[in-house]
Amino acid sequence: MTLRGSQARTSGQAAIRIGTRASALARTQSGLVAEQLSEATGRDVVLVTVSTEGDVNTAPLATMGGTGVFVSALRDALLADEVDLAVHSLKDLPTYAQDGITLAAIPTREDPRDVVVARDGLTLGELPQGATVGTGSPRRVAQIEALGLGVELVGVRGNVDTRIGKVTSGELDAVVLARAGLTRLGRLDEVTEVLDPIQVLPAPGQGALAVECRSSDTELAALVAEALDDPNTRAAVECERMVLAELEAGCSAPVGALAEVVEGEDGPELWVRAVATSLDGALAVRRSASGPYDDPIGLGRKLAAEMVADGAHELLNPAPHS
Ligand SMILES: NCc1[nH]cc(CCC(=O)O)c1CC(=O)O
């Protein structure tokens, strides 16, 4: 795909190359970023498809080194100067920084909640005992088990179409997905329930995108930040990701976190809520806190410290049975 910017013919500047994964969702997300960037800067923008281990290998993510399988091939393409920008789902990004890579922009996030797509328009609570609910995410498994509905959680992987297809075909009674993915793919009408974050907290960063560039490309980083960055989304996801980092958990750990900017008495404040669970959902530490808008990192640290004091590390890394 090539988007012709309004400045293209006069400026003589090369097109900005955006690296994207090949899935329909990734291409849609990258396309949105390409459109916004072209519109805001007048530059030509092209999409370049890069295949990643997470797309090629359909084994459970936890067996592939979990963190970052969707991310590293795009970063390699950036560092090799094959593309100028990489667009990721922010929740797939490892919490630690990588040398040479700058998180140039975090655009305005979509609704971060998880949703259910079930047969016959049903909600989770309406499904019969023993009904099969598909998800590959330990975070979703644990929090849904904790609801005590008597449904059977079944591991599924694959793109959005594959997962919803298992409900359409009758193989599963329901699947759980990120609402944001369905919004971007124009498939919101298939949602049968939106899960309340009080019961099922989304992954840190869910619903947000990350636009990365080479750290040496300071001019492009500034251009992209100016065109795409949303300060409220950035504050919220920095806080959520700090909770995850402080709990020393990766992107496939049973940790949920959701922060929001709210209007306080003296201006904007941050609100954050988080959960860490045992894998079977039997034990959970849930906490919430609020703090100053301009210190999302401090608030994330504070909340994580409270969760650690409540035993979050023991839940996430149980001692082996003797
Ligand atoms: N786990 C893969 C993944 N990474 C980002 C999204 C959805 C889009 C988003 O959260 O921004 C999904 C699919 C899903 O969880 O249903």
Task: Describe the secondary-structure layout.
Elements: E1 2-3, H1 8-11, E2 16-20, H2 24-41, E3 45-49, H3 53-56, H4 72-79, E4 85-89, E5 101-105, E6 114-118, E7 132-134, H5 138-145, E8 152-154, H6 160-168, E9 174-178, H7 179-185, E10 193-194, E11 209-214, H8 218-228, H9 231-246, E12 255-264, E13 267-277, E14 284-292, H10 296-309, H11 312-316
Parallel strand pairs: 2-3, 2-4, 7-8, 7-9
Antiparallel strand pairs: 1-3, 4-11, 5-11, 6-9, 6-10, 12-13, 13-14
Bound molecules: the ligand NCc1[nH]cc(CCC(=O)O)c1CC(=O)O.
Ligand PBG binds at residues 89, 91-92, 177-178, 180-181, 206-207.
Provide key terms for this protein.
Double Stranded RNA Binding Domain; Porphobilinogen_deaminase_C; 322 residues; hydroxymethylbilane synthase activity; five-stranded mixed beta sheet; 3 domains; six-stranded mixed beta sheet; binds the ligand NCc1[nH]cc(CCC(=O)O)c1CC(=O)O; D-Maltodextrin-Binding Protein, domain 2; 11 helices; porphyrin biosynthesis; alpha/beta; transferase
